[in-house]
UniProtKB/TrEMBL annotation:
<feature type="transmembrane region" description="Helical">
    <location>
        <begin position="230"/>
        <end position="248"/>
    </location>
</feature>
<dbReference type="InterPro" id="IPR042094">
    <property type="entry name" value="T2SS_GspF_sf"/>
</dbReference>
<keyword id="KW-1003">Cell membrane</keyword>
<feature type="domain" description="Type II secretion system protein GspF">
    <location>
        <begin position="281"/>
        <end position="403"/>
    </location>
</feature>
<keyword id="KW-0813">Transport</keyword>
<feature type="transmembrane region" description="Helical">
    <location>
        <begin position="384"/>
        <end position="405"/>
    </location>
</feature>
<dbReference type="InterPro" id="IPR018076">
    <property type="entry name" value="T2SS_GspF_dom"/>
</dbReference>
<keyword id="KW-1133">Transmembrane helix</keyword>
<keyword id="KW-0997">Cell inner membrane</keyword>
<feature type="transmembrane region" description="Helical">
    <location>
        <begin position="176"/>
        <end position="196"/>
    </location>
</feature>
<dbReference type="InterPro" id="IPR001992">
    <property type="entry name" value="T2SS_GspF/T4SS_PilC_CS"/>
</dbReference>
<keyword id="KW-0472">Membrane</keyword>
<comment type="similarity">
    <text>Belongs to the GSP F family.</text>
</comment>
<keyword id="KW-0812">Transmembrane</keyword>
<protein>
    <submittedName>
        <fullName>Type II secretion system F family protein</fullName>
    </submittedName>
</protein>
<feature type="domain" description="Type II secretion system protein GspF">
    <location>
        <begin position="77"/>
        <end position="200"/>
    </location>
</feature>
<dbReference type="Pfam" id="PF00482">
    <property type="entry name" value="T2SSF"/>
</dbReference>
């Protein structure tokens, strides 16, 4: 689907929040926050609303906290806009109302720019297209189709549902990744604190015993000495490793692909990431295809939304196969990335002319599979993590008290 490119304009950072106090036409004290690119523009907005300005100043940024526009923000924006348009409120008024109620500064800026673009005569799809960092091609495709068909509210509802399901899936995957990492990090931190701060106190006491210490205690004291000497080297190495991986993923497609392939090969997390990528692919393709987006363009959108470099490369290869006249089912089979169940359902959908419905069923199945796997992983990890932390911390404590127990037995 061909789309007109939006012309360049001021970046979102040119807008700021302005706090104001003043009186309305009835002399009542009023205060609030508005978004404008300059003090003059903010003053003009207030004067147009009949406000006698007493104070107007730029709102200070809160050190960048809460300023990132997330998928959850976009989903809520779509849902709110669909509800207001369905209620008969014009698009410009809807954008203005949602922008004023938004608490996220970056989202306010983005909606303000959209409002300005639409008021200047651009279509809503063109206004959205000026924000590729937050608005993907699927969003623009569906809004353009909704504007042409006079069903913008329906398309926005569809976008909101799609974004909400995608966010729910993403949160499940993050739970599978972050929960064990957070607990293990806390355990390592407590262990390091004991080795660096607590064990040296016992070592001072042991020096006055004048007897050989148990091997377990000697090993703990050796670990404590290493931790005291090299702890900052470990922190630097960990930070450099994380930064190096992030930089490599951003700058090197080959490295990013290798990391993605390694993640999919992990014994427990790998299947969760794989099922998640299939679910995202199926959901995105179903939403695009049902809105009338050509299959080739829909595959392009799905490739960017699957969240895996391995699957993205496979979907790009599928595009070429489909362009060459192969069916979607056959193209999916050639990649070797999709399960037999997914291939069968897509084949049935192609034969019955209900590909979008079958793809939605595939997405529902794999989303449920991801949820079940994450719940199972969490329930299994909890006792395992407790045992590991107990052994780590309990072992340290026991090694420190062994010499005391031996002295008690000798006496």
């Amino acid at each position: 689907m061909a789309r007109a490119l939006a012309p360049s304009r001021k970046p979102a950072e040119a807008f700021s929040q302005w706090q104001w106090r003043g009186k309305n036409a009835r002399g009542e004290l009023q205060k609030g926050v508005l978004v404008a690119s300059s003090r003059e523009e903010a003053r003009a907005q207030l004067i147009n609303q009949g406000i006698i300005i007493k104070q107007l100043q730029k709102k200070r940024a809160s050190f960048g906290l809460g300023q990132r526009v997330t998928g959850a923000h976009i989903a809520l924006f779509s849902r709110q806009l669909a509800t207001m348009i369905r209620s008969g409120i014009p698009l410009l008024q809807s954008l203005n109302a949602i922008g004023e109620s938004a608490t996220n500064t970056s989202l306010r800026h983005m909606i303000s720019q959209m409002h300005q673009d639409v008021s200047e005569g651009k279509s809503f799809a063109q206004a959205l297209e000026a924000h590729p960092k937050h608005i993907d091609d699927l969003f623009v495709h569906l809004v353009a189709a909704g504007e042409q068909a006079g069903a913008l509210d329906t398309m926005l509802e569809r976008i909101a549902s799609y974004k909400e399901k995608l966010q729910a899936l993403t949160s499940k995957v993050k739970k599978a990744l972050y929960y064990p990492a957070a607990v293990i990090s806390v355990g390592l931190g407590v262990t390091a604190l004991l080795l660096i701060k607590v064990v040296p106190q016992f070592e001072t006491m042991f020096n006055g015993f004048g007897a050989d210490l148990p091997a377990f205690t000697q090993m703990t004291l050796a670990l404590s000495e290493m931790a005291q000497t090299y702890w900052w080297w470990v922190l630097i190495a960990a930070a450099l490793t994380v930064m190096g991986i992030k930089t490599g993923v951003k700058r090197s497609p080959r490295f990013a692909f290798g990391c993605s392939r390694f993640a999919l090969a992990l014994p427990i997390l790998g299947p969760i990431l794989e099922k998640s990528a299939i679910a995202r692919f199926a959901r995105t393709l179903a939403t695009s295809f049902s809105a009338g987006v050509p299959l080739i363009d829909a595959l392009d959108t799905a490739a960017g939304a699957c969240g895996s470099q391995v699957f993205e490369r496979g979907i790009r290869a599928m595009q070429e196969d489909v362009v060459n006249g192969q069916t979607l089912n056959f193209a999916m089979r050639n990649t070797g990335l999709f399960s037999g169940m997914a291939l069968q359902m897509v084949a049935i959908g192609e034969e019955a002319g209900s590909l979008d419905a079958m793809l939605n069923k595939v997405a529902d199945f794999f989303e449920q599979d991801v949820e079940n796997r994450v719940d199972t992983l969490t329930s299994l990890l909890e006792p395992l993590i407790i045992v590991v932390l107990g052994v780590m911390v309990g072992g340290l404590v026991l090694s420190m008290y062994l010499p005391i127990f031996e002295m008690g037995n000798a006496m």
